[in-house]
Amino acid sequence: MVHELVIIGSGPAGLTAGIYAARANLSPLIIDGTMPGGQLMRTSMVENWPAQKSILGPKLMMDMREHATHFGAQFLAESITRADFTKQPFTLETDRKTILQARSVILATGASPNKLGCPGEEQYWGKGVTTCAVCDGAFYKDRKTMVIGGGDTAMEDASFLKKFTKDVIIVQITEKLTASHAMQQRVLNDSDIKIMYESTVSAFEGDGSHVTHAIVENKKTGEKTKIAADGVFLAIGLKPNTAPFAGQVALTPQGYVHVENTTHTSVPGVFTAGDVQDFRYRQAITSAGSGCMAALDAERYLKSL
Asked: 207 an active-site residue?
């Protein structure tokens, strides 16, 4: 069997692409991947999704999945480990050795946040420890917050958090910030934002339901300090999930899928959407929007065959 369209990834981008493709009678097959539902499955409340004043991340993704299923999208609970885009039909292989063939493919595998790997991180992930200040900052009005990282994203997160609280600490592992000069000045000129240099978080502690403290270790002296923190935002980068497609489509130097003409990859018939190609915005709504565009582009491509 040759599928008209295979969508790899089941986050906001993949599911939105599935909704549009199913309504266009393309009978899309959506590959769940290693994290069905994407990063929102590990968040709490989402308050910036249009028409939803507040909704649990997992609930939002379940609703989107049901929406795609309602219009006829099919799902496969496997992960793609290998792809061959050198000839039509395209060939995909899963972690369970399932071989799939498709006339068109949408890459919507997202990106995985870099983590510290320290004790307590997994336990309190989504319970005060997260990566998106823009998503969750409003929950921390007048609360104690911490940003880990020294690049542009960390500076943006710290500045954004200042809209809600004056208690912001940046923890940076090197002796200076790595952000652009303008972004650094925005933070350095703000007396409310404290910076701990040459330091990293070695552990998170909490009450079982939410993080309450971070153990900050000075990498130079080895001294450890227990700091109260209601919300901790990791800004140490994302890793796009492009490993199965390396050598098959063009990637940027940072490993993201290179985009040509909005959603087109370097291979005709292979499209991309969401965080796997978006290093700038990284929001659920922008991922969903690009999923819509990728589905429309795939539909036009299939009509042209």
From this structure: no
Q: Kindly state whether residues 40 and 177 are assigned to the same domain.
A: no
Indicate which residue of 132, 157, 167, 230 is catalytic: 132
Domain that holds residue 60: 2-113+238-304
Catalytic status, residue 292: no
3-state secondary structure the chain: CEEEEEEECCCHHHHHHHHHHHHCCCCCEEECCCCCCHHHHHCCEECCECCECCEEHHHHHHHHHHHHHHCCCEEECCCEEEEECCCCCEEEEECCCCEEEEEEEEECCCEEECCCCCCCCCCCECCCEECCHHHHHHHHCCCCEEEECCCHHHHHHHHHHCCCCCCEEEECCCCCCCCCHHHHHHHHCCCCEEEECCEEEEEEEECCCCEEEEEEEECCCCCEEEEECCEEEECCCEEECCHHHECCECECCCCCECCECCCECCCCCEEECHHHCCCCCCCHHHHHHHHHHHHHHHHHHHHHC
Mean pLDDT of 264-284: 95
The CATH number of whichever domain residue 50 belongs to comes to 3.50.50.60
- pLDDT per residue as tens digits for the range 120-169: 999 999 999 998 887 889 999 999 999 999 998 899 899 999 999 999 99
Whether residues 59 and 197 fall in one domain: no
> Is-catalytic flag, 132?
yes
Q: How many domains does the chain have?
A: 2
